[in-house]
Amino acid sequence: MSEYLTDGSKTYGRRRRLSGPRLALAVLAGVTLVALGLLAAVGLPATLDGSTLMVRLGTTSSDVLMLTSVAERSGDLLAAKDRRVLRTAGGMPPSLTYRGARVPTNAPLLPFRAYGISPGDDVVEPTKSVTKTVDPPVDYRGSGPLERVVRYGRKGVSVTVYGAVSGDVLSSEWVVPVRGELVMRSSGAYASSSGGKVRGTKKLVALTFDDGPDPRFTPAILKILKDNGVKATFFVLSSHAKQRPDLTRRIVADGHLIANHSRTHRDMTKLNAAELEGEFRRSQEAIASVTGAAPRFFRVPYGITDAKVTAEARRKKLQLVGWEVDSTDWSKPGTATIVKRATPQRNGGMIVLLHDSGGDRRQTIAALPAIIRTYRERGYEFVTVERFYK
Ligand code: ZN
């Protein structure tokens, strides 16, 4: 405490003896104070673009910009696609410059300086990318109420890049390309016109399995049929029968009926005369080479037929067989739906369309025991299609 007092009295002592240079310093300090006072009160001049600008203490770049017509000098908002103006003055605001350099927005301005003004930059809109799942387009061929998927579609995934403000599409590409679905339509009258109409009112049901044999699914179906003492009809593709002769012969050995479902599974109405004849002949020969007997029954692929096809079938002494009940198992609608559709409440005999190949047939396998049980409970007898054409 005493030391502080001593220092204080020394300082006081010095200031009492003001000499020349110290007086000048004091005057300068006084002038500075006045200048600062002026600066704080009315400001001191600087220039902006050649015009005088009064700069007060604490005036910043943005204060000045607020007083000028900023909008006129702001940049524009441009489209990402073609750089067209989306919004005038929608870009960056202008800024002050000093000796060519931008003055930061909150920097205080100093008097006696020549400031310039630089227009704001244009701004390009931001972009956004949108990922979309696209359902496959469906291509229908033929006409009629019966539909069958010939080729399954696949959903596609596309990524589209848009201008966030303009909505312009900048790019669009498939991550997973979409694949269209092909559906064959056929007339419900087909079953009767091709001889598949079941005669009589007796409770007979023929379960028919198309497109096999298939080592993944046919054995499980054969086991269920055997366990339940049911005989069925297998409309095989001759190409499959040739590839799997043992499985084909096992179907015969189990007491089922082998029938022909063509060699290539093409729409037979699209074949020329020679191809049509060859399709019947070669498929019959191939199946006979495996089982030892040429089939008597033929089911056209997709149920699509016409006068030329039926005439050629007659020449080959083949009975065309359609169906009366489509389980729609080919569309994999779920086990419960397959059971329901395969067992409608009708009187008289029925031919039921099912599949043991041509796709994943696990739902068909799961549905089969309930289908058999339902027909049994209604008093039906299981037969092969032969019984309907005697
Ligand atoms: Zn088929």
Question: How does this model look, in words?
Answer:
The chain has three domains: 106 residues, no CATH class; 56 residues, no CATH class; 197 residues, TIM Barrel (Alpha-Beta Barrel). It has twelve helices and 22 strands. Strand 12 and strand 13 form a beta hairpin. The protein has 390 residues and is an alpha/beta fold. Helices cover 33% and strands 25% of the residues. Zinc ion binds next to loops.
Structural features:
disordered N terminus, five-stranded mixed β-sheet, 33% helix, TIM Barrel, six-stranded parallel β-sheet, 390 residues, rod-shaped, 3 domains, alpha/beta, binds zinc ion, 12 helices
Number of helices: 12
Percent helix range = 25-40%
Strand content: 25-35%
Tell me the name of the CATH homologous superfamily of the largest domain: Glycoside hydrolase/deacetylase
CATH class of the largest domain: Alpha Beta
Largest sheet: 6 strands, parallel
Number of strands: 22
Ligand kinds: zinc ion
As for the CATH topology of the largest domain, it is TIM Barrel
Q: Can you give the mean pLDDT?
A: 85
CATH architecture type of the largest domain: Alpha-Beta Barrel
What's this entry about, in short?
The protein is α/β, with parallel strands linked by helices and 390 residues long.
Reconstruct the topology from this structure.
Elements: H1 2-16, H2 20-41, E1 44-48, E2 51-55, H3 61-67, H4 70-73, E3 77-78, E4 85-87, E5 95-98, E6 101-102, E7 114-118, E8 123-124, E9 127-134, E10 138-142, E11 146-151, E12 156-163, E13 169-176, E14 181-186, H5 190-193, E15 204-210, H6 218-227, E16 233-236, H7 238-243, H8 245-253, E17 257-260, H9 273-291, E18 297-298, H10 307-315, E19 319-320, E20 325-326, H11 335-342, E21 350-355, H12 362-377, E22 381-382
Parallel strand pairs: 1-7, 3-8, 10-14, 15-16, 15-21, 15-22, 16-17, 18-19, 20-21
Antiparallel strand pairs: 1-2, 3-4, 5-6, 5-7, 9-12, 11-14, 12-13
Zinc ion (ZN) is lined by residues 210-211, 261, 265, 301, 358.
